[in-house]
Amino acid sequence: MGIIQDTNLKGDNFNWIGSVFYFGYLFWEYPANYLMQKLPLAKITGFNVIVWGGILMLHAACSDFAGLITVRFLLGIFEASISPAFLLFMSHWWRVGEQAFRTSMWLSWNGIAQIVGAVCSYAMARGVEKHGYTALGGWQLLFLATGGLTIAAGTLFLFLVPDSPATAWFLNKEERIMAIERLRGNNQGIGSKKFKKHQFVEAFTDPQTYYIALFVIISAIPNGFLTNFKSLVLKGFGLSAQKSLLYGAPTGAVQFFASLLFGWLADRYRNRMAFAAVAMSISLLGFILAVALPRSNLNGSLAAYYIIGVAPAAFVALVSCISSNVAGYTKKTTVNAIVFIAYCVGNLIGPHTVNLKDGPMYVKAKTISLVAWCVSGAILIALRFHYTRSNAARDKKMRELGDSYEHRANQEFMDLTDIENPEFRYTY
Fold first, then answer.
1. C-alpha–C-alpha distance, residues 142 and 158, integer Å
2. CB-based contact 325:100 (threshold 8 Å)
3. Taking every annotated instance into account, which residue ranges of this chain make up the domain Major facilitator superfamily (MFS) profile (predicted)?
4. Is the pLDDT of residue 131 over 70?
């Protein structure tokens, strides 16, 4: 949309603009999770969304590389809490067996954003170039429009979304009790404002933390490449600059429906890792075709690119394990921080797998992404084995204890970690 020319970007400036967002995200991830434990969850989330929208609008005022990296860094800071906060909302409101599909319901809207963004980008770029409706560039109009909509959404969120079932304005007292009671089987409670040092330490000693973080960091490398260079990849297929904006829309549709489908299947058949691996395999096929097909095969290349859009469904299933399988509020917020720091690192690496001299097909970056997703699929299988082995060991221990085991009254709401609570079982 002309941002490179209008802001006089040179060399690898565009790569760093893609990366610096994640430096801000990385810098603020743990403080953001700590504040989410101490402050009202919905209020701090709504505030961050509103400020994020304002910073997005400020992008339109930037005229050089320095301005862009400054607002991108700030954008990362205020996004750092959003996905982790939504995962906490999942554990506050829904049973473990409902969380994969519920997680897919909000993460899938990244796909809708891609559709709306692609259509609006095309319309604005075409309108500015052909009709000259405004002195602003199309990219500036896009930042102003999406930033304004974000501020409106954040304002609604601030006033409408409760911090937990205990404070839900749309439930009466009896319904609030029912909403909390239905979560008893989660063995997680609904949050605690007290920071517990032993839970913080446990987050770093629990193997599942590293399985999830490793998957996220490796699978985020292709995401960092595709997110920042989507239009350039599509232009590499022989599309014009404007058409490359519009042709990105079907990827969003694939992501939306795939995330919902695999999220529903994961809860319906109680098998998150298996369906995540299937989603990853489908995306791998897309990357194999993207590397192998010649540039002359436009339809095949586009189909390959769209198939890659299934991958976020695997990410949905994996991150839902944080809300379902990590108990203890300090531990959960700490694992949240670790995992999304890993997400930042992967996305930081992603843009730097691209050398603009490798265009138009960027075979090296696509090959690196292909290998990354192969490794990610193997990690999913290993994590499933870890969960099944842990559950089997707990079942065996409970059988050995027999009648000597005594359930403590309301221990489900005592803010015990998944390791501390012998009745806790992992969902996989």
1. 24
2. no
3. 1-389
4. no
pLDDT tens digits, residue range 22-35? 899 999 999 999 99
Q: How many angstroms separate the CA atoms of 135 and 203, rounded?
A: 52
What sign does the CA torsion over 188, 189, 190, 192 have?
negative
Residue type, 170: F
Question: What is 3-399's CATH number, 2.40.50.140, 3.40.50.360, 2.60.40.150, 1.20.1250.20?
Answer: 1.20.1250.20
Contact 349, 228 (CB under 8 A): no
Model pTM?
0.87
Is the pLDDT reported for residue 17 higher than 70? yes
Domain parsing of the chain, residue ranges: 3-399
Pairwise CA distance, residues 106 & 189, whole Å = 22
Q: Which of 145, 148, 149, 151 is nearest to 120 (CA)?
A: 145
Q: Write out the two tokens for 358.
A: 């490798």
Q: How confident is the model at residue 87 (pLDDT cuts 50, 70, 90)?
A: very high
Provide mean pLDDT across the span 168-182: 95
- Give the end-to-end CA distance of the chain in Å, rounded to a whole number: 43
User: Rounded to an integer, what distance in angstroms lies between the CA atom of residue 268 and that of residue 262?
Assistant: 10
Residues 84, 175: contact at Cβ < 8 Å?
no
Does position 130 have pLDDT exceeding 70, yes or no?
Answer: no
What is d(CA 209, CA 383) in angstroms, rounded to the nearest whole number?
10
